[in-house]
Amino acid sequence: MPTKISLGAPWQERSTAKKNSVFDGVPFQFIHSVLEFRDDDASSVLDVPSRFLSLEELSITALNAVGIVRVIASKKYTCVQVLDAFTHRAAIAHRLLNCCLEFRYDAAHAEAERLDRHYEETGKLVGPLHGLPISVKDQCRIIGTETTCGFVANVGVVDTENSVLVDILMRAGAVIFVKTNLSIGCSWGETINNVIGHTSNPFNRSFSCGGSSGGVGALLGIHGSPMGVGSDLGGSIRSPSAYQGLWGLRPSTGRIPYYKMLNSMEGNEIVESVVGPMSHSPESLELFVRTVVDSQPWLHDPKCHPLPWREHEFQKITAGGRKLRIGVMSWDGCVLPQPPVVSKLEAAGHEVVPWKVDQTKALALLTRALTCDGRGDHDRTIARSGEPDLNLFFRSSQSPDTLLENWALAMERNDFRASVLEQWNATADENGVPIDVYLTPVNPSVCPKHGDYKRVRYLGYTGTVNCLDFTACTVPVTFVDEETDLADAEDGKHDARGDEIPEPQSDLDRAIRENYRPEIYGGLPVTLQRKS
Question: Is the pTM of this model over 0.90?
């Protein structure tokens, strides 16, 4: 429900009004039981929802997206029952993690009732997402809601149209029930803004949930939503997915429609933001992408490629028709991943090919692309409300690029992409087959604590994908075991097993290595990313 406040009010009043309006329209029975919950312990809150949910609600919210569509189709549960269960759990999640910006319960409930009536009267599902509750990052415009993009200036501005993706999901039967928190301007790997503040990780609230799609990640991590929509400019889908142990897909540009979503630096196409799904299983990601592609989004978004779902290509890989050739980059020579990440880089049953990309070059190009306006768009937006600068986003020491400089940067990016394509082709075996994908860590650290992100921030492993415009998917592997995933030896030259490790390549590399403490990181997710 939109915030009731004057657009000319001081930013503090607009922020307070937004915080107070998050639960507007949510039934009291979903929020009263947790309103008095107090727990100063910063450890895991994953089990807290079980104190307040019924057995039916626990059963429903334990299902992944594919399972939910199936139980609705089997008439075990109605769309309204499913919506209410996830609304209740999401309300608890917000109390614990500060992860939601706006519930649209009244509208979502009406949509769920309509879906139930349609199924009862016709015996047919509206579409492949019939009744599936979906949470969306607060970039997705939905009629009657606010879309802040993390800026106080947008609080009180009510959407009068939907993003193209929102229309597609709703036509397929999805029930979009909540908008989630994000970093200011979608420009940081930690979810914090002046609108409602910081979002935390459900595995340990003293740790980051990632960003900028951290609200999506935190909500899914505590199973307050079965499917979420995030966006990714430098790792904003993959880092939150990694920090919460989720499957998250960063598609290449033009695959999932971005049209009419709100973003910072709109029109900058050197390195483009993309939108993609986050969920609890690869089958759920497939359901989302297949549904969107089958809707022919290129008819509504001029930047979407007219490329249909290719079932034969999908089956060729998933049915195990041939072994895969997998490139593995255990580290990039710049920042060494912490022990739990390195120990999981294995590709059993497939051919492994050594692989390395010049991530230093990629990161330099990405940074220049993100600062080419001298931070002008970000600064003019915060000036509209008078909100304070959180000093998170890149600071450019130069004036905005001229048009000619911007063109030159685009050509340099193209040359880099071409060089990596040649490198990829050079991996071909005797049959002329190059690598299918390559694996890397998502980040060199498992997950930073609140306040540590600036000190241990490194975008090389995620940002390279954006610079190259590859598709990448996070793959949850395990959790940190403090008994086996030990810190490096005190001499800094050997790992816990006594094997020699390379010298730190920079102060950042040294800081990330020294930051790892197994007794602190124990229980946090470990995730890889697959790129193609």
Answer: yes
Token pair 């579409």: residue: 127
**DSSP per-residue letters across 349-375:** TSEEEE----HHHHHHHHHHHHTTTTT
Q: Alpha-carbon distance 271 to 85, whole Å? A: 39
Topology, domain 318-531? Amidase signature (AS) enzymes (3.90.1300)
Beta-carbon contacts of 24 under 8 Å, excluding residues fewer than 6 positions away, are 1, 103
What is the pLDDT, as a whole number, of residue 530?
84
Q: Contact at 8 Å (CB) between 46 and 89?
A: no
H or E segment to which residue 216 belongs: helix 214-221
DSSP codes of every residue in 56-99:
HHHHHHTS-HHHHHHHHHTTSS-HHHHHHHHHHHHHHHHHHH--
In single-letter form, the type of residue at position 493 comes to: K
How far CA 5 is from CA of 8, 155, 160, 247, in Å, comes to 8, 9, 18, 38
Q: Amino acid identity, residue 172?
A: A
- What distance in Å separates the CA atoms of residue 351 and residue 245, rounded to the nearest whole number? 26
Q: What is the pLDDT of residues 176-206, one digit of tens each?
A: 999 999 999 998 889 999 999 999 999 999 9
pLDDT of residue 347: 40
> Check: CATH 3.20.20.100 for 11-316?
no
DSSP state letter for 485: S
Low-confidence ranges of the chain (pLDDT < 50): 341-348
**Phi and psi at residue 118, in whole multiples of 5°?**
-60, -45
* Residues that are catalytic: 137, 212, 236
Per-residue pLDDT, 499: 63
CA–CA dist 488, 341 (Å, integer): 13
Predicted confidence at residue 150, as pLDDT, reads 97
pLDDT per position as a tens digit, 228-254: 999 999 999 999 999 999 999 999 999
What residue spans define the domains of the chain?
A: 11-316, 318-531
DSSP 8-state code for residue 488: P
Give the pairing of strands 133-137 and 175-180: parallel
Q: In what order do the strands lie in the sheet with 175-180?
A: 100-103, 175-180, 133-137, 227-232, 274-279, 247-250, 472-479, 525-531, 437-441, 325-328, 351-354
Helices (H), 297-448: 311-318, 339-342, 359-370, 376-385, 403-425
Place of tokens 């940081």: 188
Give the pLDDT of residue 37: 67
Fold identical between 11-316 and 318-531?
yes
d(CA 465, CA 472): 7
Cα angle 435, 247, 94; round to 5: 155
Q: What pLDDT shows up at residue 345? A: 38
